[in-house]
Input
Amino acid sequence: MRVKILTVDDSKTVRIIVKKAFKSFDCDVVEAQNGVEGLAMAAKESPDIILLDITMPVMDGVEMITKLKSDPALKSIPVLMLTAEAGRENVMKIAKIGVRDYIVKPFKEEVLIDKVSRVIDLRPTGESAPVQKRIDDPIDILVLEDKPAIIAQIKNGFAKTPWNIHGVASTGEAIDFCQRKVPDCIIISLSFPDDAAITLFRIIRSNAKTKYVPLFGLSVKTELDEQQRAQQAGFSTIITKPIDFGELENKIGKAVNLDASGKYFAIDEAFLTVKLPSACNATVVNEVSNYLKRKTSEAVDAGIAKVIFDTQEMQSLNTEVVKLLLQSMKLCRDLSLNYALAGNSKVVSESKKFEESKDWDFCDSVEAARSSL
Amino acid sequence: MQNAFPITDPELETIVLDAVGNVFSTMLDIEVSLVLSTEVNKEKHSNGFRLPLETDQILIAGTVGLIGKLTGVIYIFMDLSMALNFTGRLLDLTPDEIESEGHESVNDAIGELTNMVTGAFNNDLNKKGFQCRMTIPSILRGSNYTIEPMEDAVRRIFKFDCEGGSFVIDILIKEENTFLKYINHAS
Output
């Protein structure tokens, strides 16, 4: 998937300059002209990074990033501030609100590209992209952590995946490992003394073979100083303990650019089945939504005209899922695809509580749904 | 220069030169040279002061305000052909493309240039201990401007040459909050 950059600036000139800077890279640049539009675009486009101006009408950059950080679906999107004001007071303010880095105007394109490429994987257009791995392909994750219990916990947390977890206890071992085999992702504990994690980060980034490997920092939730230092150094993302393995799996999948559509979509001879998991939070809904158009197009190309929306495993129905299903059904109608819903008794009962879904017909099994089409 | 103003003439000139030079070389790849630096006040210019831009074209001015320990406004005046030149360089557009976009692209480009120059100027003020915030930019179009500040504001004019033409930075600034008295626009 191409990386996506959202530029939020009231100046069309700056938005044009940003677009121009990334013209020769394999990425999409989307725009917004104030904080309100920026939040809407961030929710709609799920960008990999946001370039954000501070002084804007309607909603300024500080307010936008505050709202971004309070939204569970958006808070992990890294933000680079673009500002003409580099005074100490301004820098302290933006450092506190959790930006990854900042760029002072005026700026050369090379500086912008350099700072962005420390955060996301920017590849020149035409450079052969690595073959995309799927969510059920084995990948190698290197974990640098001096506490064996944490390494064991991570291995356990990913036991149901085909991922190989390699634990090492020192930066030397980590470097040796990377020389033998380039991992797909590296998780580094930030608790090593003397900023060893950041030193290792720089070593890994300076090596051509490991330059693009996503680097995650692992930190205790309350250690905000070390997290901020790591973010400013350029770590792709910070994982806090206690570890939420569902969230970590999603983040690794995204960082390594794994095709996760297989978690939700299956195409057989006659049907496209969209299966929603038991816990459908905003992240899951976003992920399904991102793949929806591509997978329905694949189905149409394969001559398939029937779609099953399988909600049987869902524990409950929420507004985000209702919106997702509405969007999906509309897409089916636009593409002249017949569709049917399969749901459990709880989902059926909860669907009656929403105006948009109260008239939906559910089959009580996937087989019944297939037969109905 | 007013005795009360906390920044000396040479310091102010250096700040302006650094700001303009940095922005123009970074964003436009243009070297500028300062050819005139003058103070405007009622004693020296009792009959008013005409901007040192010899042109029969309309003028375009980008303007950004400063508010804080120092309060004031910065204008960048240039004629239309200079504005089109800067816009073309900034946005990588040909004159025909700029024309098809209309006033908006020129206004936005000059506004952003003014924003950056004022930002660089402000950053140096901050380093000297004068914390100020900036307003969003706006654009004036017309000819024969006169600007008359409050009596205790300092006004300095800096004229720069580049690309076969000139532009002028007009700074009005004082240490306490004040407002411009009015802007006269003579037809």
Observations:
- The longest helix of chain B spans residues 103-127.
- Chain B is about 35% helix and 35% strand.
- The CA atoms of residues 86 and 148 of chain B lie 28 Å apart.
- The radius of gyration of chain B is 16 Å.
